Amino acid sequence: xxxxxxxxxxxxxxxxxxxxxxxxxxxxxxxxxxxxxxxxxxxxxxxxxxxxxxxxxxxxxxxxxxxxxxxxxxxxxxxxxxxxxxxxxxxxxxxxxxxxxxxxxxxxxxxxxxxxxxxxxxxxxxxxxxxxxxxxxxxxxxxxxxxxxxxxxxxxxxxxxxxxxxxxxxxxxxxxxxxxxxxxxxxxxxxxxxxxxxxxxxxxxx
Amino acid sequence: xxxxxxxxxxxxxxxxxxxxxxxxxxxxxxxxxxxxxxxxxxxxxxxxxxxxxxxxxxxxxxxxxxxxxxxxxxxxxxxxxxxxxxxxxxxxxxxxxxxxxxxxxxxxxxxxxxxxxxxxxxxxxxxxxxxxxxxxxxxxxxxxxxxxxxxxxxxxxxxxxxxxxxxxxxxxxxxxxxxxxxx
Lengths: 206, 183
Prior knowledge:
The complex is a heterodimer. Chain A has 9 helices and no strands. Chain A is an all-alpha fold. Chain B has helices at 8-16, 20-42, 45-62, 72-93, 95-98, 107-112, 118-128, 132-143, 148-155, 159-182. The chains are: A mainly alpha, B mainly alpha. The A-B interface holds A 5-7, 10-11, 14, 16, 41-42, 44-46, 48-57, 59-62, 64-66, 68-69, 72 and B 20, 23-24, 27-28, 31-32, 35-36, 39-40, 45, 49, 52-54, 56-57, 60-61, 108, 119-120, 123-124, 127, 138, 141-143, 145, 147-148, 163-164, 166-167, 170-171, 173-174, 177.
């Protein structure tokens, strides 16, 4: 047998069931003691809830509501708000305009001239000089180091490896419009020049 | 202007057209029900009066867009219920706002502390101790005598949710009643 749910029993107590449904529920209750006990317990709760009687409050809400509505209307009158804000800003603007700087007829030059003569130009002392030199030297060293490192890095990135000596000599000779450079000597190009002079002499005196 | 014979819907149309005295008639007509509902949900007259005032201000604001799709009282109860739930939520966050569910004793409430009213006080406390949604559903069903469908319409919850909340509320009250009777 299916028992009745609590919400059906509560609806029955609250007269919330239609005629046909009510008849079916009552028929079921007649043969089901468990549901009758549950109905009685719920009816007791229903009954005791009725004992909470709220006394009529002798309060007339209308004056409060009327005031609140009036305040609301005043608050949302934006044209009035804008006008008041405009007036306030104009007042501030006018007040600012009245602030005029008084004219000063004082000549400042004598005071400045006196101060310059008194103080003179700032002198560079020996200590300061040494410090300047040191800073410059460090800056130059840093620039060289950075330049060198940067150059090596760029070279490695572009893939230009240093040429072998023979190729280097050939490149230098070509750039000088020569077939080749002279044999290497401890004195370098001096030998080449001497050789060139000797060859010229032999051409002149066969 | 006499509004005694006017329907609520006609009064709303009049409020929408700017007739403020029509709102006065609505207040006179429904303030007791609104106050009673708010009081049972909140447990304090001061808070209930604030909610009731807010309710009629909302009615005034909504008048131009009001469409009579349901009974006026259903719509009115929906506003009250939502405001009460908001008030309880705010009170839960800052207990100072609403405080305990008791009023400063007035001659009436002092008399209510007599033995004859002990059960009524117990009921009041038991209802106030219910979770907010159960309390709202119970008050609407038991005291405003709304059906499950009407409670669902007022609260915006489904009918099955309303039934479930009500069953849980009754079960909680039964347990408390048993303990109360054992004392």
